[in-house]
Structures are given as C-alpha cells and as structure tokens.
Amino acid sequence: MRIPVKKSLTPLLTMILVWGLAWSLAPAAGAQQGPAPRASKPAAAPKQSLPGPVSTYRELAGKYPPLREIQIPQVETHTLANGLRLYLLEDHTLPIISGRALVRAGNLFDPPDKVGLAEITGAVMRTGGTVSKTGDQLDQELESMAASVETGIGETSGQASFSTLREHWSKVLGIYADILRHPAFRQERIDLFKNQARSQIARRNDDPGQIAHREFNNLAYGRDNPYGWQQEYEHLDRIERGDLERFYRRYFFPANIMLAVYGDFSAPEMKAQIEAALGNWKNDQALAPAFPAVPENRRGGLYLVNKEDVNQTNIWIGHLGGLLKDPDFPALQVMGDILGGGFPSRLFQRVRTRLGYAYQVGGGWGANYNHPGLFTVTAGTKSNSTVKAAKAMLEEIGRLREAEVTDAELNTAKQTVLNSFVFNFDTRAKTLNRMLNYEYWGYPKDFIFQYKKKLEGVTKQDVLRVARQYLRPEGLTIVAVGKSADFDQPLGELGQRVIPVDITIPQPKQARAKADAESIARGRAALERAQKAAGGAERLAALKDKVISTNSQLTGPMGKMAVKQTVRIIFPSLLRVEHEMPFGKISVFTDGKGGWLQSPQGPGPLPGPELQQARGQIFRQTETLLLSDRDPGRAITLARKEKIAGREAEVIEISAKEGGQVLLFVDAATGEVFKKQYQGDSLAGPSAQVEETYEDFREVGGVRVPFKVLVFQNGQKFIETDLTEWRYNTGLKPDELAKP
C-alpha cells in the first residue's frame, strides 16, 4: 500500500537544511509584519445577563431524537452506445454543476519495475494539458470561470472531476472532455512531477510516525506484491512519456468509465450534452483485468526500525482486516471502536489515562471494498516505556477475546459508529458518490440499509464471537520505530525474535560507459593531460590540505539567498564546511564514516542521507579525481568525445567500487577540466543531473584552479559561486576540523 546540489564547494547536505530552516523561519500567512500597532484603550464590554444552569452530558443523554432515515435520491442512469455509464442527479438548490468519473485503473496495475506509473499518469493527464492547450492555459481559463477540473489515479480507481457554475457549464464540459480524450503528457510536466516524487522519497524517513505507518502497511500486505511495493528512485528513472501514453490508452476508454453528474440541470438536456461531447469516443481496448488479490500472510513478526535521533517510539500492531461486505463487518467495527475508537475506548482509558504510557493511542478494524483492510492498534510513547506500552496494547487485544464487553461499551460504540456512518449520506451529493462507489465495486443497491440494520442488531455476544474468530494474536505484525538503546526493556521481551528493518533509501543506479582496453587506455591518457594542465601529477599528490572561502548566490524554493562559505579539507577524506546564512551559521564535519552538524537549532549527529551526500562531495574533489589512476579502487574510461560551445571535449568517466561516479569534461586542446557532471542531490531529492562549470582559472601554489563556479540542476542554474580565497598545505590538523 503506497500511502517525494552537491558541488565541491557547496555541499547540498547543508543546502537542504538552509531551505528547511528558511521555510520554518518564514512568517506564516497572515502573520503581522513590522512593529506591532500601538494598543488603544479597550471599549467597555456590553453588560450581559448571567447564563442559566448548564446541563451535564449525563443529563443530555438519551434526549436526542433518533437519526433520520437515509434517503436515497432518484438517480437517472444511462449507458451510452460506446459503453460509458452515466448517472444524473438534479438538484436546483444552487446554480452549480459538478461531476466525478470513476475509471477502473489503479497503481495496483503498475509494472513492478515502474512503480508510480499510474500516479504520474493521473496527475500529468491534467497538468500536462491537452493537444490543443497547455496546462497553464487550462489553469487560466478555468480560474477565470471559478471552475475546476482535476484528475488522479489511486490504488484501485482513477478519477476525473469537475465543478462549475451553471452559466459556464458548456465551456467546462468542453475542457473536461478534451482532458479525458486528448491529454498531451508534456515532458516538462512529467519532469516536474518526477522531481516532486524524488523529493518525497528523499524525505520519507523524516517523520518516525510515517515510517511506522509505511513499514507496517508494507509488512502486513507483503513486499512481494503491489499492495506492499514501495517507489524508489530507480522506478522514477525508468518511467518515460511513452509509458504514460500506453497506460492512459489501456484504461481510459468509455466502457471502463462511470460518470456521475450532480447539480442544477435538466437530466434530458444533460444526457444530450454528454452524448455530444463523449458519445463519439470509441472503445479500442478490452475490459480492464481484475485487481490482484492480497496474498494471505498470517506469519506476523516483531520488527524494529532503530533511529538514533529520536526520544519517542511509534508502535503499530495488527494484521489483515476484511471487506466492507463481510457479514461480520458491522460487529467488527463495533469491536474496533470499543478497543481503540476514542476517549471511551479501552486502549485510551488504560494505556494513556491510567498508565500514562502513551500520548496517542488508538486502533480499529479496517475494511476495503475489494481487498482486506488492516486491523491496527497504534501508539506513540516515550522511549523508556516502549515495551510496557506494547505489552499493555497486546493485553487489551487479548482481553477482547476473553469475555463479553459491557452494555455501556456496546451502546457507546454502536452509536459512535452509526452516527459517523450517516455523515456519508447527509447530502444528496455524498449519497450519489457513495452509490457510485457501490456500483463500481458491484455491491447491492440496498447495501446501505443492509449495513445499517446489521449494525443496529450487533450484540455483546457478536462482539465476543468476532473477536475470537478474527483477531489472531499469534499472527500479529508488530513494528516499533525508536531508539532501542533507550527502551525500558529489550524489545524481544514481547516474546518474539526481533527482525531489524533497513529503511535506507537506495540510490539510483547510474549507467556506465563501455569499458574495454581501448576506452580505458584513452581515458587514462586524457586524465594524464588533465593532470599536466592542472600543474602535474606530483604537485597534485603533494597536496595535504585545502582552505577555500566563497561568496555564493543560491536560487531555491524561497527565492535567492546570499551565502558565505568556508571549506576546509584534509585529503583524502576529512571535510568541514561552515556557512554564514542570513539567519545564522551552519557547520558540518565528516570523516567519511560519521560526523556532526551544528545549526541554529543546535548540534547533532550527521544523519545518514546527509552523510551520504558528504561522502559524494569528498569523492568529487577535483584534486583527488585527477589522481584516480593511482587508486586501485577506481575505474577510468573515456566515455565519449563531444563538442560543447565550440570546445572539443574528452569526457572521462571515473567510478569507485563503493558506488561514486562522475564525468570530467576535459578540453582536448588544453587539458583543462572545464565541467563536471554527476547524478547527485538537489532540493528535489537525489537523482537530479548536476553540472558544475568552471571559469576564471588562476594559479595557486602551482595548481590551476577555477575562481568562478556555476552549478546547474536538471538544466536550471542553482548556485553561482565566486571564490575569495584558495590556499593549499596550510598545516590543518584533524582534531581542528573535528572540534565542534
């Protein structure tokens, strides 16, 4: 179940922090700017009479009338000649017309090597515009009418919705039909969505609660099927425009679509308008296949995601749930509410109120239309109460199977579930949408009433029976995300072997040039020319340390920002970078194995993703890259020759056994390294194509170095840097760099 630049002078590991801090420090929308207004003398408050006696909730109990019966509106249904199913519901309360199409598609149909294809297809179908209009043009036209058209694809359905004032209906219908039938999937919008998805992937381990939720879902459903797949950078890199077009053609055709229209119109006229816009849309595909089944997974297990940078633990416990149409679903819902549905629930009363172990605790029985939902019990607790909280949660699950619940628990839960359910039908539009869902999944037309009747008839005996039948203590999946060293007891005290979970984000694999004897020899020869142009291999090998100071102009999410930077390096692997920002200083140190970070928010260890970025920066130091022919752990190949802005360039690929890879662009005439290219990190996450170009070469200590650097991410300028100081062999000591 799927619930988004580095450079040798300015490491991205701090840039991400910069922009994160900039966002966090930016004033909120509507926040007052400038000096506060001078307070004026308050006006005298009007005299008010004292309120009468207030009733307590106990006095109010039982005095509310019963809920009104659910009213099912009369919906006109039609099937057009091309197979499109149409549902029309008039409502003349407001001069608004809205609609929603359901398409039998979903990310469950993603190819295993292109996870995320459905989602990107659904998004770019709208943002990429149509053959006749760009997405921006559609935005402007719709905004001028206060209308909207949106598309998307989720796990088990695609959707295309619209909303408009009645007076603009004809124009909006034309746009809606154009998007459904003629999406253009423009490449720039595909690239934008992929960059946003990369950003989400890069940040997916930021929130421990989200980690626990994600890992529990994937483990409960199983990682070997579409319900438990997880999108990675490599999947995004494989998705191309043609994949979107093929996915669209396979699933977006009339017989695979149900369209519900609601609002201020005449049904006969609406049917005629829909037929005119979509009636000649031809079917050219076989019906969509059935969605894959969820594999039975009753093994469970005890899983630990160890995070050293947290002082709280997120716990998820549960297993597969069931379907909405299961005969026992109403009783299971009541059971789940008694266990963890809110303030009166057993989990809340014991784990949070009486024991004080958790600041958040809850749970319930989950169900879906066509595949099992998840039975879950969750809590957030202090590290030093992790195992005690988990044991209490497990005991409450077991207690449900031992004896009947009380009359008060039963009545409260039934009323809670029933009262929340009816809000799905408190308007005619909601009722139409719910009916469309029932029709989409093949549920009986009177399913609403069947469910309500069964829910009202749930007894204490039913709750005990379903708890014993459906809850499987021996098959529970338990996921804990926290710092295990601070737990009150070893996690294994829960009675199972602890299975560690690796949440490291795999970096995208990079294509490598063909490495044969000839390309290797040519690559080494080109590298020797670059060594000579830089000052000679022996002079480069004699470099012990480097100190540089820079002034940089960054362009990012918050606009432009001026940054001063000092970089100190002891070759080959010690790095310290200090930034002066408008809001404070950020310092970073790494020895390639670990490190620390000091920011206005305080000191801390260098997190894994940032450490990985720092390692890449160390690897890409030009001085050590030029000596790669002396490193047996590096491969050197002449990847190609090309002409760039009138320059004949020899492109050398240098790759390391541990995974680093970079392209050096060497001027064939002078041997000067004038550009560097690599797959690196950007503010949108890893897997951006990063280019560094070098200008204004000067000699420092016999070595030619650039005093101006431009950095581009995916073709867009990101950083412009001017060097103000460059020194070699200054006598730096390792303990000087490592000292905070």
CATH architecture of the largest domain: Clam
Apparent shape: globular
* Count of alpha/pi helices: 22
Total tally of structural domains? 3
Structural commentary:
The chain is α+β, with helices and mostly antiparallel strands and 740 residues long. It has three domains: 76-206 and 224-278, Cytochrome Bc1 Complex, Chain A, domain 1; 301-500, Cytochrome Bc1 Complex, Chain A, domain 1 (2-Layer Sandwich); 508-738, Clam (outer membrane lipoprotein receptor (LolB), chain A), CATH 2.50.20.10. The radius of gyration is 31 Å and the shape is globular.
Tell me the layout of helices and strands:
Blueprint: H1 12-25, H2 57-60, E1 76-79, E2 85-90, E3 96-103, H3 117-127, H4 135-144, E4 148-153, E5 158-165, H5 169-181, H6 187-202, H7 208-221, H8 233-238, H9 241-251, E6 257-263, H10 267-278, E7 301-306, E8 312-320, E9 322-323, H11 329-340, H12 346-354, E10 358-364, E11 367-368, E12 374-382, H13 386-400, H14 407-422, H15 428-440, H16 447-456, H17 460-470, E13 477-482, E14 498-500, H18 517-534, H19 537-541, E15 545-556, E16 559-570, E17 574-581, E18 584-590, E19 595-599, E20 602-605, H20 608-619, H21 622-625, E21 634-644, E22 647-656, E23 661-667, E24 673-682, E25 685-700, E26 703-713, E27 716-728, H22 734-738
Parallel strand pairs: 2-6, 7-13, 7-14, 9-11
Antiparallel strand pairs: 1-2, 3-5, 3-6, 4-5, 8-12, 8-13, 10-12, 15-16, 15-27, 16-17, 17-18, 18-19, 19-20, 21-22, 22-23, 23-24, 24-25, 25-26, 26-27
